[in-house]
Write a structure and sequence with these properties.
The protein has 260 residues and is α+β, with helices and mostly antiparallel strands. It has 5 helices and 17 strands.
Length: 260
Amino acid sequence: MRCHEVDYEIIGHDMQMVEIELDPGETVVAEAGAMNYMEDGISFETKMGDGSQPDQGFMGKLFSAGKRMISGESLFMTHFTHQGTGKKRVSFAAPFPGSIIPLNLANYGEEVICQKDSFLCAAFGTNIDIAFQRKLGTGFFGGEGFILERLRGDGMAFMHAGGTVVKKELKGETLRVDTGCLVGFSGDIDYDIEMVKGLKSMFFGGEGLFLATLRGTGTVWLQSLPFSRLADRVLEHAPSHGGRSQGEGSVLGGLGRLVD
């Protein structure tokens, strides 16, 4: 099934959103809750699945939805369709600050694999599926990198990343990455999880016990600030009691927290 050909515009710099322009009859599929606004003439419907396989049948849709539910994702996806005349726009943004990465899947072998929380939206016809890893170690120790989504198609898809986005082109090389910093990679990259070497590095290095290892030839997208890392730091420095702690940012504030 060929994907709908949608036009788009990335709006903003540090906290971006994507505005997608639809012709009559065109549809964009998004994760639940990602929509910001839509113009008159666009209607939305929540469906089980991405609609890329119309002959899949109810049981096939149920199986695909079951995989999404096991991975912690919503059973349903939202389809936004332009049912009026002229060109109309609908916009999407992730629930945390960051950058949006537009992907023309046709330029990446029609397949990109991304973190399950990185996918934002895609042109109708894109197959959006859970990509469980073949190797047991990857599954148990991957952290954010365990459950990945596979995007297949020949149209536009959009990923979201926290902080600064870095695009790496591998040419038979190996790249080791913190699992949370990995946003996505093209389908011909081999992905695995490796344990950090050395007992001291493992327990006192502060980088976690495992790293994602990517090998091969293709494209890798990285993010400088995973949301999980940001949330950990915010919680770490949050006051232990409801309000703002006295003397915060001073020696007295530190001593007070130590006594607490």
